[in-house]
Amino acid sequence: ECPRRSGKRRIEIIGIIHKRMLTVLLFIVILGILVLAHEGGHFLAAKLNGVRVHEFGFGFPPRLWARRHGETEYSVNLLPLGGFVRIAGEDGRDEGTERGRSFSEKPFLAKFVMLGAGVAVNWMIAAFLLGTLQIFGAPIAVSDAENIAANVTVSAVAPASPAASAGLLAGDTIIGLAAEDGSAVPATIREVQKFLSIHAGKEVRLTLRRGEDEPRTLSAVPRTQPPEGEGPLGVALVRVAKVSHPWYEAPFRGVFVAASLSIAVVQGLGDMVGSLLADGRLAEGI
């Protein structure tokens, strides 16, 4: 029995290591693609503005391979966690560069385009991927009023709440509720809230789906008098549905989602800076 358990444990550890190695490899590949695209944006903008590019390098030295094509040297380096474009005059020195072909000689607008081109390319990639996701189906939040197949998902867990004590996590999908006097398969947030309110002060069993794991059941006792701003269980819920759109709508939706996320990021950074300037600390929840 013991050797069998030991062998099973060894297999589980190997499986975990294998998954983590694949995750690291995937991260490096995705990072490499994003960096290559980002630096490619700077490269193309410099070329279009007539600026000399000395080198377009992927990764950081030591160098593994390099080849010159025209006036630019293209290199591949050992550390694949970045990249760079060496543009004439970017450091303020123009030695050996033809007049008018230095970054420092270009007008403000051209410099702005060259500096922002990398971010612009990454943004366009994000919009394209988000648009593609719309074709195959993207998970989005929907209201209870929408007559569509959806799952009720935990979006946040309050500290020191029954949900936290039971082990619920953000991202858990509630696929079943049960108590001594009945059970339910909730399709809306309202159904979950009603069931918990009816069974406040009694043990409730929640069947959850967490990622790709097998469904699990956790027990909790909803509070009869929860703190202000919290429900009996102490969770925030969102109704999530997988919605797809026709291919001809997808690009516009991708741009819309990318723009919405960008605005949300800017607003979040603005709120953070405002909190720091106002009272010297970050707002709660940031």
TrEMBL record:
Organism whose genome encodes this protein: Terrybacteria sp. (strain RIFCSPHIGHO2_01_FULL_58_15)
Keyword Amino-acid biosynthesis found: no
Higher taxonomy: Bacteria, Candidatus Terryibacteriota
UniProt GO MF annotations: metalloendopeptidase activity
Family note: Belongs to the peptidase M50B family.
InterPro entries tied to this protein: PDZ, PDZ_sf, Pept_M50_Zn, Peptidase_M50
Keywords for this protein: Hydrolase, Membrane, Metalloprotease, Protease, Transmembrane, Transmembrane helix, Zinc
Name recorded for this polypeptide: PDZ domain-containing protein
Domain PDZ: 131-212
Superkingdom of origin organism: Bacteria
GO cellular component, one term: membrane
